[in-house]
Amino acid sequence: MLILRRADVTDVLSGRETEIIDLVAETYRLHDEGQTSLPHSTFLRFPEEHHSRDRIIGLPAYRGGERPVAGMKWISSFPGNVAAGTDRASAAVVLNSLGNGHPVAFVEGAVISAKRTAASAALAARELTADNPPAAALLIGCGVINLEILRFLAAALPDLREAALYDTDPARAEAFAARCAEEVPGVKARPVTDLAAALGEHRLVSLATTAATPHMDLSACGPDTTVLHISLRDLTAEAVLGAVNVVDDADHVCRERTSLDLAQQATGNRDFVAAPIGALLRGTATLRRTADRPVVYSPFGLGVLDLALAEFVREEADRRGLGVRVEDFLPAFA
């Protein structure tokens, strides 16, 4: 068993945004071709009131193609951690041998989860704004995910020069701006306090908050706006129904009271979903913007992306001799 710590994962993935975006795109294509297996995620919730916002999610997955991989991501979301000064999410990924099913690697998964999420967002931003790439973006929610998204947007959108930052806690936005300046120096980041005005001024918006229920619509947005709805529960059902919607997988994202699930409940169907990102990448579907509707990208965050990236990390770590090997994790066989 190879155990890869956070430092090992960070070492392998730092500065490789373009490669990660390409890997995510390849995995989406394989998924659209039917070369993946993705059971629905399992949500572990707790009966106590003080745990009402907490959950741990299991995402088993298999990716076929030339580099097959199988395993499971196990990720917790405890929003109260943010106020305590620690990360909301923590995760681990188990990779299994496709020869005998044995677990072969145990990988710190929070870095992988953040980077594959950001790569998915940046990939969608690149594809959905290809005709008119933006020079600025609005980030709503000043946490780990939007920092990674900004890093990946800078790699995917060469014209990106500015980022407006909004958070319900203005001090948090100020601190976030300083961190962005340090880690993504090519993009000038500045806090804003008037959300409606910022929505009207930006054609690219990234939503990455800890919201558990819808709290905003898109009435302040222009019709040429592309919204990366990463946290999945920010938009009202009406906002979703008033948009052109792109997803990663409708079966996965229309569950667990996401904004799209609420839209599905309101209409009794999923006709509001225009296309999956994999089909757009393969050219088997096209997306048509309209004069009066923004485009909203709502990715569930498929476990197959975590598995693909974890295997990428495992292969590179193995070449570099990174990680800790536990030779007697499994029983020896004669």
Automatic annotation (TrEMBL):
InterPro entries per the UniProt record, alphabetical: NAD(P)-bd_dom_sf (IPR036291), ODC_Mu_crystall (IPR003462), ODC_N (IPR023401), SbnB (IPR023866)
Source species, domain of life: Bacteria
GO term, biological process aspect, one: siderophore biosynthetic process
Molecular function (Gene Ontology), one example: oxidoreductase activity, acting on the CH-NH2 group of donors, NAD or NADP as acceptor
GO cellular component: cytoplasm
NCBIfam families linked to this entry: dehyd_SbnB_fam (TIGR03944)
PANTHER family: KETIMINE REDUCTASE MU-CRYSTALLIN (PTHR13812:SF19)
Identification of the protein by name: Ornithine cyclodeaminase
Lineage: Bacteria, Bacillati, Actinomycetota, Actinomycetes, Kitasatosporales
